[in-house]
Amino acid sequence: QRWSSAVEAFRKAIAMRPGYVEAYNNLGLVLHRSGSSGDAVAMLRKAIELEPSYAQAYFNLGTIYMEKARYDEAVANYHEATRLQPDFVQAYYNMGQAEYCRGRLNAAINCYRKAVQINPKHYGAWHNLGIAYRDKGLTDKAVEALEKAVALNPNLMR
């Protein structure tokens, strides 16, 4: 019920202002959360069509593709989000996860390193960087990254 009223509200906003990019983006998010990923992708693509430099819509598309294990498409969209917004730390982090899932450890490491360069307190990026280093057999670097993650969030030890 709550999703349907949100969908209705964003559709009304778009009807009143057809160029309202954020409304298309937000409608896409609500549709995705309500289980209509196909419609969500269409709304996010419309947001990008209206505003090709809207990094958030690329990020949201990447997230949908990531959840569907469509990692190539996720990486492409996260990459575009970071091209448009070079300090988009969460896009680098998510792109690292997608690269890791594709088995591309060097690419994942580069993404996580960029994320912690932008935000040195992003414990998730430090954690995942440590895991990627471990998987590459770089034990010293793995320990260092994981120690930073735990220092930032001691709950990781639980």
Lay out the secondary structure:
Blueprint: H1 2-16, H2 21-33, H3 37-50, H4 55-67, H5 71-84, H6 89-101, H7 105-118, H8 123-135, H9 139-152
Helix pairs in contact: 1-2, 2-3, 2-4, 3-4, 4-5, 4-6, 5-6, 6-7, 6-8, 7-8, 8-9
Describe this structure in words.
This protein has helices spanning 2-16, 21-33, 37-50, 55-67, 71-84, 89-101, 105-118, 123-135, 139-152. It is mainly alpha-helical and 158 residues long. The N and C termini lie far apart (37 Å).
Report Rg.
Answer: 18 Å
Describe the global form: elongated
Q: If you average the pLDDT, what whole number results?
A: 95
The structural class is mainly alpha
Helix count equals 9
In percent, how helical is the residue content? over 70%
Question: From N to C, what is the helix and strand string?
Answer: HHHHHHHHH
Low-confidence stretches: none
Task: Estimate the strand proportion.
Answer: under 5%
- State the major sheet: none
Distance between the termini: 37 Å
Key words describing this protein structure:
mainly alpha; 9 helices
Summarize the structure.
By secondary structure, this protein is mostly helical. The protein is built from nine helices and no strands.
